[in-house]
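Q: For a teaching handout, I want to show students what a protein-ligand complex looks like in token form. Below are the inputs, and the small molecule is T4K. Please produce the holo structure.
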Amino acid sequence: LKTKIEDLAIFGGKPLFSEKQHVGRPNLGDRTQFLNRINDMLDLNWLTNRGPFVKEFEQKIADYLGVKHCVSVCNATIALELAIRALELTGEVIIPSFTFIATAHALQWQEITPVFCDIDPITHTIDPDKIESMITPRTTGIIGVHVWGQPCNIEALTTIAKKHNLKLMFDAAHAMGCSYQGKMIGSFGDAEVLSFHATKFLNSFEGGAIVTNNDELAEKLILMENFGFSGLDNVIYIGTNGKMSEVCAAMGLTSLESINEFIEINHQNYQCYQQELKDIKGIKLFTYNQQEQCNYQYIVLEIDEEITNISRDKFVDILTAENIIARRYFYPGCHRMQPYKSYFPHAGLLLPETEKLSNKVMLLPTGVNMNPDKIIKITDLIKFILDNTCSIANKDNK
Ligand code: T4K
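A: Here is the structure, written as tokens, with T4K included.
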């Protein structure tokens, strides 16, 4: 344990962990099951193009979520692009700026303008009260993002979308295994998009899916992800190559078998962080709604520098030196990244909550590679830092 500030790795001490502790370390399921599937795949000699594992994975995801269709693709960014195109969004689409850049890029990639809306500081999701004033004659849709698996205010968004005849989509990249009013995320709006990236709660190496109850939309998406082919030698629609491969589906199926174990471990980790950080002033752990199902995949802290006397960025630097690779998702907000920063230089004025949150937020490691012993080492370090902010500042100033 650290007893003096010279023990901190940033000042030359030995790092708390000998190996890097990452946010987003993959949750791996049963290795034997996965390898068996790979053998089956090789025996069958069927590697991609809607093979048996892809079909099984889609069916199992649809069943788990209670949604009619799951169209799996190679990643969630492509899933967003396809869903946006299949829903015929054009002109302007309202999204939060507090999201991963992919939500904005999926629109701009097809020359649709993302219009950035502010968030609710408690839920970190798009603030429905701020949407209506952003609607223009060019607006065709809204994309809500269930950040950290915390569902958006779906009810309010649905009402606004209906009232203004807008399409409603959800970027549910973080929300596999989460529910809203008791119903699994996946069947809300016109379509929802899941990510199965390696860093996500449930991974298929790379992967994503569009889930929907709309038969026509699902049919269109299946064409679109496979160049528009309808049977051999017959293209009936514009398409691309968005297909998920068999090896990814094999990983996805294996992950799916361990979903309850992942939730249990994440929940236990979350409770440990909660217990250890509960009385610390100026550090707030994001609270999940206990009435809903949740994957607890994200440990999100807000550092209030006015109370802690140490900035979020300094915290990240100190933790990183100790091999705790804390992350600043989603700093600085899409509106401050290119090309949006150039397109909308004053967007920040309309996004006060996004600006505040993106400067306070810090994510810590969880998942199957973490456990309460490691977490207590991290939280003890946080307490040590907070007890020594003056000495750290003095040493920095020397
Ligand atoms: N919408 C939202 C709201 C999203 O958050 C995302 C993705 C998307 C859409 C798009 O989904 P995909 O197209 O990716 O399916 C990471 C992920 O790459 C990205 O999927 C994720 N969101 C985002 C929040 O995080 P980076 O650029 O921060 O990744 P990187 O390489 O820094 O990895 C994160 C940490 O995970 C590192 O500290 C190392 C660790 N890691 C990573 C990988 C890949 C491992 O330990 N093992 C690994 O295999 O974006």
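A: Two things your students might notice: The chain is about 35% helix and 15% strand. The CA atoms of residues 52 and 246 lie 8 Å apart.
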